[in-house]
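Case 157 in the screening queue. Each case pairs one protein sequence with one candidate compound; here the compound is iron/sulfur cluster. For every case the pipeline is the same: read the inputs, emit a complex structure as tokens, and attach any notable structural observations.

Predict complex for case 157.
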Amino acid sequence: MRPPWWMEGVAFSCQANCGKCCDEPGGIVYLSITDAERISKHHGMEVEEWLERDCRQTLDGRYVLKSREVDDVCIYLDQNKQCTIYTVRPQQCAAFPWWSENLATDRAWREVKETCPGLTADDALIIDGEAIRIHVFADRESTKGFRSWPPWNRKVR
Ligand code: SF4
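Case 157 output:
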């Protein structure tokens, strides 16, 4: 089987003060189990308490970050378009633009290139295919998500 096109490396450099990928009304950030543990700890909260305060569940039960009522943008993006939990941000956020859905087709990738200036920036550096692969798996893990806490207590029917 041929390796995916991006295994040869892709030029990218996230641009300071951009925030375009976060400033997206209706955007959904799926959470992994380790995201919930890390971010709740950052806030000095129990995981259940943090899930109740800052998260919601999708129709199929997966936990995602809440959005602001006023503009439907992530609650952690401040008025300067900065992530207020950047150092502990969800792995799906850290994995952008290397999401499976972005890499899957030429058309999807063209659209991402049009919206993410980091992919066409003059200071872009080649990101190694192995590094991209790690992000792809992280995104997949987050998209799978979890539906209860603790996740290992889920009732088996
Ligand atoms: S849109 Fe691209 S360049 Fe801008 S913050 Fe997101 S990843 Fe970085």
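Case 157 observations:
- The chain has a mean pLDDT of 94.
- Residues 14-15, 18-21, 96-97, 116-118 surround iron/sulfur cluster (CB under 6 Å).
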